[in-house]
């Protein structure tokens, strides 16, 4: 006998907010650390827009700094999920890039040459978190 689960949009929105706010900064720090480590390992760190700090410092700094854009993204996307029950990849990426830009206005980042690349990374991290929500059957794949 199959068990049918009925998940309301409010529950989907709550999980969307929690996962974006908590997992988003972790994915951002992990992605930035991987980029710095790989460019250093392959000797192509000249492709980075700025000289990277030490790996641990960069990862922890990006985790701490990315909490504000993650919470902004989480709040907006939770409202979208609450209203529609789902989330498209384009909305997820666009909201993350805009939230990154707003956070860059509020908090000093000090990496003026890297803002564009970091904004793109924010969009990619948002897509990874969205895929996590889909794999966990929290939101449908649209």
TrEMBL record:
Q: Which domain of life is it from?
A: Bacteria
Q: Which residues cross the membrane?
A: 12-42, 62-82, 89-111, 117-139
Q: Which UniProt keyword terms apply here?
A: Membrane, Transmembrane, Transmembrane helix
Q: What is this protein called?
A: Uncharacterized protein
Q: Give the species this sequence originates from.
A: Hyphomicrobium sulfonivorans
């Amino acid at each position: 006998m199959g068990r049918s689960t009925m998940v309301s949009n409010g529950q989907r929105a709550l999980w969307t907010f929690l996962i974006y706010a908590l997992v988003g900064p972790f994915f951002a720090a992990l992605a930035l650390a991987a980029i710095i480590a790989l460019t250093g390992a392959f000797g192509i760190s000249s492709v980075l827009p700025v000289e990277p700090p030490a790996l641990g410092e960069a990862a922890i700094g990006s985790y701490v700094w990315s909490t504000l854009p993650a919470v902004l993204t989480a709040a907006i996307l939770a409202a979208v999920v609450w209203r529609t029950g789902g989330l498209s990849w384009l909305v997820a990426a666009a909201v993350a890039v805009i939230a990154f830009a707003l956070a860059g206005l509020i908090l000093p980042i000090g990496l003026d040459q890297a803002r564009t690349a970091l904004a793109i990374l924010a969009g990619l991290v948002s897509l990874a978190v969205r895929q996590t929500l889909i794999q966990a059957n929290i939101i449908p794949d649209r």
